[in-house]
Design goal:
It is a single chain. By secondary structure, the chain is an alpha/beta fold. It contains twelve helices and seven strands. The chain has one domain. 47% of the residues lie in helices and 22% in strands. The strands form two sheets. A five-stranded mixed beta sheet has the order 1-4-5-6-7. Helix 7 links the parallel strand 5 and strand 6. It is globular and about 70 Å long.
């Protein structure tokens, strides 16, 4: 079975030369748990979208708890915890979950999914022509810039450029790209710098595709909330509805002894702040609203008085 972003990170960690020997067997178990988790997600079903969301988010919470506590926090070595940012074992869980989650919800609601839903998709950012009057280049030198997105819903777009109206093959350049219509950046802890970077990215995204929607999803908030009204971010969703653990507590987690001393507290923190089915439902409803193509009827508009 081909593995996604998170599965690949587990394999990469297993192959790391710096990995302590005692952690290798732990990662082997984690890889098996990962395979079982993906199968459970793909096979999950329910009579309604709401029930499906509850089931899928439940599977997410159970697996993420295992990764956070059993794999990383409980390791007698400090490598997995201290290298979390580099290994990306924990923060890629949501990255792999979201496309599966959205695709299954769309199919449940509409019966099919005719858009590409994925992570790390290189979506269209801009186009330019690398040519000049003295060096016209085939097709004007059409080139495409793309940007990887943590989550995207896109359609494949094929472009041809030529100086000939008949697009003669030897005088034509053909380019394939993806137009992103719904995109999301995923963060574990959202701070002000990340917020500002996301604002700039959202602006670029909407310059490239005017009908695009851009969302920012984070596990924990690590900043004072700022209104998105003056930005191109459509909405920020805090999927655990919680603030980040303070730095004076986090510093105790860097050693095995410190983690064990605070294990019960950390378990309570994660248990009391699970991934919220309500927030994932809100994200899916945003997507559903973009997919419904409802034509405006003049009589209805006049009755309402707005459109």
């Amino acid at each position: 079975m081909p593995r996604g972003t998170h599965g690949e990170k587990i394999v990469a960690a297993m192959e790391s030369a710096k990995l302590p020997n005692s952690d290798k067997s732990r990662l082997e178990v984690a890889l098996q748990k990962y395979d079982e988790w993906i199968i459970a997600l793909e096979e999950a079903d329910a009579p309604t979208v709401d029930e499906l969301i509850e089931k899928l988010v439940g599977l997410l919470n159970k697996y993420k708890f295992y990764i956070d506590i059993n794999l990383i926090f409980d390791s007698p070595e400090d490598f997995l915890y201290r290298q979390k940012g580099q290994l990306k074992l924990d923060n890629t869980v949501i990255e792999e979950f979201l496309p599966i989650f959205v695709r299954k919800c769309i199919i449940k609601e509409f019966g099919k999914c005719d858009v590409e839903v994925g992570s790390q998709t290189a979506t269209f950012s801009s186009a330019y022509f690398a040519s000049s009057l003295s060096s016209p280049t085939i097709g004007g030198g059409l080139s495409i810039k793309t940007k990887d997105q943590d989550f995207s819903m896109s359609r494949t777009l094929y472009l041809r450029s030529s100086y000939t109206p008949t697009f003669d093959a030897e005088k034509t350049v053909t380019v394939t790209t993806h137009l992103g219509y719904v995109m999301a950046e995923l963060k574990t802890n959202l701070d002000k710098t990340m917020y500002q970077e996301a604002s700039a990215t959202a602006h670029d995204v909407k310059l490239a595709v005017t009908g695009a929607k851009y969302y920012l999803l984070c596990d924990f908030l690590d900043m004072t909330p700022i209104s998105t009204a003056t930005t191109d971010i459509d909405e920020i969703l805090i999927v655990r509805k919680a603030k980040r653990i303070s730095s004076n507590v986090r510093k105790e987690f860097s050693t095995f002894a410190g983690r064990q001393a605070h294990r019960a507290w950390y378990i309570d923190y994660l248990t009391n702040n699970p991934y919220s089915a309500d927030i994932f439902r809100r994200f899916v409803e945003h997507i559903f609203s973009q997919m419904k193509n409802e034509d405006l009827i003049e009589e209805s508009v006049l009755d309402l008085g707005y459109f």
